[in-house]
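Protein record

Derive tokens from sequence
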Amino acid sequence: MTRRILWDVDTQVDFVHADGRLAVPGAEEAVPAMARLVEAARRAGIPHVASADDHELTDAEISDERDWRTTFPPHCLRGTRGARKIAETEQTDPVPLALTPVPGRYVRGREFLLLKKSFDPFTNPNAEPLLARLDPEEVILFGVATDVCDDAAIRGLLERGRRVVFVEDAARGLDEGRVAACTAAWRERGVEFTTAEGVIARLA
């Protein structure tokens, strides 16, 4: 049986809900597919790894003079509603992994929450050990935004030799041109593209 994990990128209120501080266009349309993926993973018993922005106003990414590439307006601020995961992808009892290394004896369970201050989830020192511990043959990835944090996560996984499956209908991007560029680059590197229904059939 193929070892799989579900990798959920930043499905937080500020990104997904239309009234969020940094709402990704069309993200609410992807919510039903996101919900089906999380439920399918739960039924199949496969690990659900979720990354989440955990910002403070002093973070380098937060700026009043944002360029919409490396700097953005305040979003996913720690302790706010906008930083929460949306109800449809909320985890039941995740292992919280912040920016301090966590001893391996605590990293047990099916759900893991990787907090981050950067696009790249591997800036969290717990991400690499977690990936090694789970050792998936296939990483099923979805979330927002396709051309920012999805791109960083996929590139990080590919650099670590992992096979990635991208769920197109459970993701949305900020800029159509950038989405086209990064998805073309992923295809060249062997990323498989599918839908939530395709994943559900695979896990059945």
Observations:
- The radius of gyration is 16 Å.
- The first helix runs from residue 13 to 16.
